[in-house]
Design a protein that fits this description.
The complex is a heterodimer. By secondary structure, chain A is mostly beta strands. Chain A is built from no helices and eleven strands. Classes of the chains: A mainly beta, B mainly beta. At the A-B interface, strand 4 and strand 5 of A face strand 4, strand 5 and strand 10 of B.
Chain lengths: 117, 109
Amino acid sequence: DAGVIQSPRHEVTEMGQEVTLRCKLISGHNSLFWYRQTMMRGLELLIYFNNNVPIDDSGMPEDRFSAKMPNASFSTLKIQPSEPRDSAVYFCASSLTSGGANTGELFFGEGSRLTVL
Amino acid sequence: GENVEQHPSTLSVQEGDSAVIKCTYSDSASNYFPWYKQELGKRPQLIIDIRSNVGEKKDQRIAVTLNKTAKHFSLHITETQPEDSAVYFCAASISPLVFGKGTRLSVIA
């Protein structure tokens, strides 16, 4: 398996533009997590899905952020409109969970580095 | 929800010395405590984990200890090498994983 695959690896955009980040889970995994990493705030959980269902989106900073999981292996994180303070590295991670408890290894993608000018 | 505090934020050690990173957590229901290593420009990767029914776990030069009563756990790296230089994150979970802010470890040759 190629691991968790994220695209794009780098995105530079202007304030106000829509940004879509993509993630493909490891085959067989049933939980997906979107994290945002910045120097100031570290790794913040934005949202996570279990079996395609959003379980907790309390970390999503604003209504400008939305995430979907249209099928068991793919997810998107969208920012519309983007702002300079959204600049960060966005990581997608997947794991295999049982009974809703995340007690297995979390596998991270390479991350998408977003710069909003 | 869970809150994880990690100390120190930066740590410099001489090659061959030991490094210790400490974390505390708030939710007594958390039962899984992994440690991740992130090299510059790379993704975080699991290096060791411990579950709540175990007090200590070792893997070569790396060990993790857990004190459930005090709600703290620590990472110990012995005989540090330059390639150990990275940012280390602790995490605690009942679900999902909540990460500490990270410790930037520099091993000076």
